[in-house]
Design goal:
4 helices; mainly alpha; 2 strands; about 120 residues; two-stranded parallel ribbon
Length: about 120
């Protein structure tokens, strides 16, 4: 079995296994994409934290209720060289978001390594 076929088989299994939760998730995403951004309902303090590190252009864009703001969750970690390929992904995602009229910010991280319990 070639790598492409293995990836296809694994992807198929993941799609099947995740159907019960993925379908409702996709329905929520579709609904959210039609209702627009709702930043106007957030408290000023929450908005201030979200805008704090943005460039002045991104701050201006996010001040309204039309520009999407993507949250990036990353496993990048300077301490673990095996994960350095992830170092540039946030910038690539930010660039892609800007090209289609959006903003992207690193919103959190996940453990890059996990010990067995």
């Amino acid at each position: 079995m070639s790598a492409d076929h293995r990836i296809e088989a694994i992807t198929k299994r993941i799609v099947e296994r995740s159907k019960p939760t993925r379908e409702p998730y996709l329905a929520r995403v579709r609904h959210a994409s039609t209702t627009g951004v709702k930043r106007g309902s957030l408290a000023c303090a929450n908005l201030a934290h979200g805008f704090a590190v943005c460039s002045s252009g991104d701050k201006a864009a996010l001040a309204g209720d039309t520009v999407p703001n993507l949250g990036i969750i990353t496993a990048y970690n300077d301490m673990l060289s095996a994960h350095q390929p992830f170092e540039h992904f946030p910038d690539l995602i930010r660039k892609a978001a800007a090209e289609v009229g959006g903003v992207a910010q690193v919103a959190g991280g996940v453990s890059a390594m996990r010990g067995s319990a």
